[in-house]
From TrEMBL:
Biological processes, Gene Ontology terms: L-methionine biosynthetic process; methylation
Ranges where the Cobalamin-independent methionine synthase MetE N-terminal domain occurs: 5-311
Pathway, per record: Amino-acid biosynthesis; L-methionine biosynthesis via de novo pathway; L-methionine from L-homocysteine (MetE route): step 1/1
Source organism of this protein record: Pseudoxanthomonas winnipegensis
Protein name as annotated: 5-methyltetrahydropteroyltriglutamate--homocysteine methyltransferase
Binding site for L-methionine: I436, G437, S438, E489, D604
Record-listed Zn(2+) binding positions: H646, C648, E670, C731
Residue positions binding 5-methyltetrahydropteroyltri-L-glutamate: R16, E17, L18, K19, K116, N121, R520, C521, W566, E610
Length: 763
């Protein structure tokens, strides 16, 4: 019988139970015991859901209270010294301090750096290592959760992040070689594997996703060394798990590793199957990732079945496992929870639970089980319905795309000329201060939005409420002395969802939440058809906010690449085509904002780097269309209109040419957690345009001092001209409370004043 296995399940719960439990705990409303009890109940529920959906082999240790990479660092005692005393006294407090920072009871700790998990919208906490790092087992989380599952009646396969990927995803604080630590790390991995073996785990899933990246010889040698070492110790059989792309030139290496099974992603890279089958030694297990773990569309089961049968013919029925392409962390839990979706659209979709059901259908068909043809025929009908639907294709969109010219993606004048006109238009001081866009979404704001959506608050009363909140926000910014204001975005639920709700071609769920990091969850829109903007989306609130003040008001938009990356995107056409459709819709919005008197417009693109293909040879094509899409949005305005963009935590060194090619007048970037390290790329490139390196971390409740922000700004000033520098937080303030926001922004404004005083004294 063909086995259906799963690599990982969403952690947050069908109704974000984990999010709510975490936030109650952080507020001091629940105890640690209550939090852990909620977590245990969720794990049990998730194992039961997977089994009911048709999975034979379930994962354990895929659950995390915040992030699996942080879990790994904590498990192997890779704690920076500054957290150690707290972690020794209270492990949970130490763990969350590394994730979020802490500022209470005389303790003041910054959070560890956070960055994107490969090319997804999930963020992981970056482990911080150093030369001579010691490792040891701290706790027994993988063993404990395996035994917990067994006690509940589920025999599971524990999931571990592999040793080489763990090191490659980490950073060293002293510039030393991460891989040099492998020799110290491997004995601790071996110790853990021995404990799992002793506990009764038949298999252990060991994730090495970095095997789909371009690897140098040192990294390849590290893999060979690691798995030769781990083969020597008593251990369970190992399923080496890769995902998000093809093994490519790493395949020969992988085929030589001493592991008993291999998982490959046949959704992202179906073309690799032949090469894998040729290289993979006979008698070993092949786990075929046939169902997309990163998107929500129903699988073409006929195509998947063809691949499965082909693979089975090479490895045999006993050695073929069927699985999602990757862990189901990146999709919502259960489509059946969506009661408001129309039947046609719902029939095209598949969430985590349904994806396991699709794999069950494939396995039954592969085994020739009676009744397997019925579900296959039903799936064919669903796919044909989608292909034929008039909701999907709009001829006028195709016509407009066909008329795009090079001039549509180029500003009229170069930056140096635009800058002169913009300085005249706005008269801003040196080191101008601003924010990234959103302000705290209080319980009152969320409640009013919910009441309005439920029909309990009239349109007129809701508008009055939003006007009052907007004016309060504007007056606050004036009072503390910010130079360029924002309207606060109180009308917006999410920076992508808000726009998607006003564009044709988008659909929305009620409970389609996925984890972004920690307790932060997003509900990605579903792009099912051609994108059209029926009417202006933001002009009303930007114009109203500008009417309240003489200071410049920024219009705030989410850029086309970010809308694309943070949505579940249709899979029936190239992503580049969908992105250009979004860009044209946003171009109309930018032009309307300018016509309404908004002279500064920010087009946020935090996901540009996230969308970069994992292999360098595919970068050029992606960057060409991604940068073109941004420029299509931004290039319809006059020279005096100042275009800003914002990017979240990213490594810019390797894409700085493309970032510069966006030709934004000002770019703001998240840099505070990295202590301005991310600014280095802009310095080496001699980036000429305006830059706002974030001076405090908004992902943490910690409020830095004025002196701390001044220190960061002086580091930036040492390498950039005062005329280039803007002063802003790392990111939007939506998730923060008002007290910390008020305090932090007042101190940020004071930090800018001190920098201006420095400049005045130097003159």
């Amino acid at each position: 019988m063909t086995s259906v296995t799963n690599l990982g399940f969403p952690r947050i719960g069908p109704r974000r139970e984990l999010k709510h439990a975490l936030e109650r705990y952080w507020k001091g409303e629940d105890s640690a015991d209550t939090l852990q009890a909620t977590a245990a109940a969720l794990r049990a529920q998730h194992w039961q859901l997977q089994r009911q959906a048709g999975a034979d082999v379930l994962p354990s240790n895929d659950f995390s209270l915040y992030d699996h990479v942080l879990d790994t660092a904590f498990l192997f005692d890779a704690l920076p010294q500054r957290y150690r005393a707290l972690a020794d006294a209270d492990p949970l407090a130490g763990y969350f301090a590394m994730a979020r920072g802490v500022q209470t009871g005389g303790i003041d700790l910054r959070a560890l750096e956070m960055t994107k998990w490969f090319d997804t919208n999930y963020h992981y906490i970056v482990p911080e290592l150093h030369a001579g790092q010691e490792f040891a087992l701290r706790g027994d989380k993988p063993v404990a959760q395996f035994l917990e599952a067994r006690a509940a009646g589920f025999d599971t396969r524990p999931v571990l992040l592999g040793p080489v990927s763990f090191l490659l995803l980490s950073k060293t604080t002293d510039g030393s070689d991460r891989l040099a630590l492998l020799e110290r790390l491997l004995p601790v991995y071996a110790q853990l594997l021995e404990r799992l073996h002793a506990a009764g785990a038949a298999w252990v899933q060991i994730d090495e996703p970095t095997l789909v990246l371009d690897l140098d010889e040192a990294a390849k040698a590290a893999f060979a060394c690691a798995y030769a070492f781990l083969a020597q110790a008593p251990r369970s059989r190992l399923l080496l798990t890769t995902y998000f792309g093809a093994l490519g030139d790493n395949l020969d290496l992988v085929a030589r590793l001493q592991v008993e099974g291999l998982h490959v992603d046949l959704v992202r890279a179906p073309e690799q199957l032949d090469a894998v089958l040729q290289a993979w030694p006979k008698g070993r297990v092949l786990s075929a990732g046939l169902v997309n773990g990163r998107n929500v569309w129903r699988t073409n089961l006929d195509n998947a079945l063809t691949l499965a049968r082909y693979a089975q013919g090479h490895v045999g029925a006993d050695n073929l496992w069927l699985a999602p392409s990757c862990a189901l962390l990146h999709v919502p839990v259960d489509l059946e929870q969506e009661k408001a979706l129309d039947a046609e659209l719902k029939s095209w979709l598949s969430f985590a639970r349904q994806k396991l059901g699709e794999l069950r259908v494939l396995a039954d068909a592969l085994d020739g089980r009676e009744g397997a043809e019925g579900p296959l025929a039903q799936q064919r009908a669903r796919l044909e319905s989608r292909r034929q639907s008039a909701r999907v294709h709009r001829p006028e969109v195709a016509r407009r795309l066909a008329t795009l010219s090079e001039a549509d993606s180029r500003r009229a004048s170069p930056y140096a000329q635009r800058r002169v006109l913009q300085e005249q238009a706005f008269g801003l001081p040196v080191y101008p201060t601003t924010t990234i866009g959103s302000f705290p979404q209080t319980q009152q704001v969320r409640q009013a939005r919910a009441q309005h959506k439920a029909g309990k608050l009239s349109d007129a009363d809701y508008e009055t409420f939003l006007e009052a909140e907007t004016e309060r926000c504007v007056r606050f910014q004036e009072r503390i002395g910010l130079d360029v204001l924002v309207h606060g975005e109180y009308e917006r639920n999410d920076m992508v969802e808000y726009f998607g709700e006003q564009l044709d071609g988008f659909a929305f769920t009620k409970l389609g939440w996925v984890q972004s990091y920690g307790s932060r969850c997003v509900k990605p829109p579903i792009i099912f058809g051609d994108v059209v903007r029926p009417k202006p989306m933001t002009v009303r609130w930007s114009r109203y906010a500008q009417s309240l003040t003489q200071r410049p008001m920024k219009g705030m938009l989410t850029g086309p690449v970010t809308v694309l990356q943070w949505s579940f995107v249709r899979d029936d056409q190239a992503r580049s085509e969908t992105c250009r459709q979004i860009a044209l819709a946003l171009r109309d919005e930018v032009n309307d904002l300018e016509a309404a008197g908004i002279g500064i417009i920010q087009i946020d693109e935090p996901a540009i780097r996230e969308g970069l293909p994992l292999r360098r040879d595919a970068w050029s094509d992606y960057l060409n269309w991604a940068i073109e899409a941004f420029r299509i949005c931004a290039s319809g305005v006059g020279d005096a209109t100042q275009i800003h963009t914002h990017m979240c935590y990213s490594e810019f060194n390797d894409i700085i040419d493309a970032v510069a090619a966006m030709d934004a007048d000002v770019i703001s970037i998240e840099t505070s957690r990295s202590r301005m390290e991310l600014l280095d790329a802009f310095v080496r490139f001699r980036y000429p345009n305006g830059i706002g390196p974030g001076v405090y971390d908004i992902h943490s409740p910690r409020v830095p001092s004025v002196e701390e922000m001044v220190e960061l700004l002086r580091k930036a000033r040492a390498v950039l001209s005062p005329q280039q520098l803007w002063v802003n937080p790392d990111c939007g303030l939506k998730t923060r409370g008002w007290d910390e926001t008020r305090h932090a922004l007042e101190q940020m404004v004071e930090a800018a004043r001190r920098l201006r005083a420095d400049l005045a004294q130097a003159a």
